[in-house]
Amino acid sequence: MNDTAVLSPTLSPSTHEFSEVIHRLEAGGSMLPDTPENLKQIIGIYKAYAVPMDFYWRDLLYIAEKVFLNPLPAFKYFISDKYLDRPNAYAGDGADLRIWRGEADAHPELRDFMAKGEFNRKLPKLFHHLWHDRVNMEFAEACMEAMLWHEDINPQFNAYLDGDEYKQNSDLAIRAYFKGNPLMLGLYKLFPDMFLEQVKKLSYYANLGLFWEVMAPVFFEMSDLYDEGKMTTVPEAMDFLVNGIFAVAGRPIFHHAYIDGKCYEIIPKSQGFTWLYEAALPYVEAVFYRTAPFRGTKSYNAQAGQVPSDQKDFHYGILYADVFPVGSAGIPPTLLMQDMLHFLPDYLIEDYQQHGRGEDDILIQLGITFQRSMYNVTSAVIQALRAALLYPLDDPNPDHLKANRQFFEQQIDRFKRPEARLRDVQDQSYR
Amino acid sequence: MPSIVDIAVQNDGFSTLVAAVQAAGLVEVLATGGPFTVFAPNDDAFAKLPPGTVQTLVDNPPQLARILKFHVVSGIWHKDDMAQQATLTSLEGSPIPIRTEPIFEVKNSTVLAADIIASNGIIHVIDNVILMG
């Protein structure tokens, strides 16, 4: 580590196992050391992540709003032009709040890939789909399912999904969607809870879509600032994320479905759900920290206690991932790595060619880069929570600084377990 | 005696709060409802939030109302009444941690002026916008 932590004169040094990281956070830094190499890696991967994310958020909303309860959703990944053209609320001239200076419709690199795929030839969409030469939307769905399954982390949102108002709103939408379809309406009458559960899942599609609609332009803007030489340190990259988190914290999280040209407000905006509380924080907890063991990577014996009995102790997210065995075909993290591979900036490709096994293990290398970058995003979340709930880093009151210290140490305690990669990402040779 | 809203409008330093209360559609309830205890962030408190934060909230009244309701407690709570309370439950539903000693603090804000009596409640001026969590 070559960054120097500035210790507060009023606090004695931390005795935490990761005291160096604690001191760095107290000095306004990130869990990731501030090196030019780290900055290059995280910004490069943010850009490679933002392009498929531009597809994920559009398709998540397309499924939540238009595909809805289609019992045979074979074409749910065949996003309509309307959703590809749909203006991102945080990019373009008509933005609510312009985060990215680029255009609001689907990113040109995404459109190009959707048309040609890895084949680099324009073929019928169905061919690209069946050959799996496309954006791996299954990754986005796996993230959504993690949020749905870890229900304890989103209490107000889930309380609403379990309430009578939500049931009534869903009922109206279900009846409208299956109007004139006696078979499905009959099944609904027989198994109403099954249909309601599917609508709840679709509400999480909307939740995650609205969350990622923000993150894609944030990452595009960071990449542009880096390319322009205006983002020069890891803490600057983290601070950009912190400011972004605050700026959009109050964005409504809602679920509207469009059936026969009519809007059904399944979760109305007036419910008061916010991007920060009902989407961003649950997302980080469910996806970065917890998720679930991925089938096909490693066998776990639950009876031998190899899987925690309590969901809150799950630790299968990117912050804990051993990227090498995880890098198996078909599982969600590898699907994302494959997606990011298509949009890497040249400087990262050159970097990977010079390390490890060059292009042969490029998915592993970029997976580890992604892990580094998510330690930086998590740092931004930790600093944003500290700023929102605790005290400034230069607060003159020693009790306040102690409270900040305690908060940072509690957060970093989660990385004491052996699977955590916090120690690894301190070292540049971890690739 | 002036209401909670009247006091905020008539005193300098609360223009952001007044604008927020108006945007959230809470003027009437804070002017005539109650009694309430309001932890009122001053303009400097709102100015500490990163750029865009307040604007996004003002553009979305239900979300803004939720944040503002976190600053309001049902009933009249003087500083002395709060000495025995570790938390109060906000109208938003989340608890607000309170400390009165050695200094009067509401969550991560410090009370700049306590016990301002209104016709329908009491105001404590705070130096930070407080957030749930």
UniProtKB/TrEMBL annotation, chain A:
It holds the Pfam family ChpXY. This is Carbon dioxide transporter. The lineage of its organism: Bacteria, Bacillati, Cyanobacteriota, Cyanophyceae, Leptolyngbyales.
From TrEMBL, chain B:
It comes from Phormidesmis priestleyi. GO terms for cellular component: extracellular space. InterPro entries: Adhesion/Biosynth-related, FAS1_dom_sf, FAS1_domain. Residues 1-130 form the FAS1 domain. This is FAS1 domain-containing protein. Pfam families: Fasciclin. SUPFAM superfamilies: FAS1 domain.
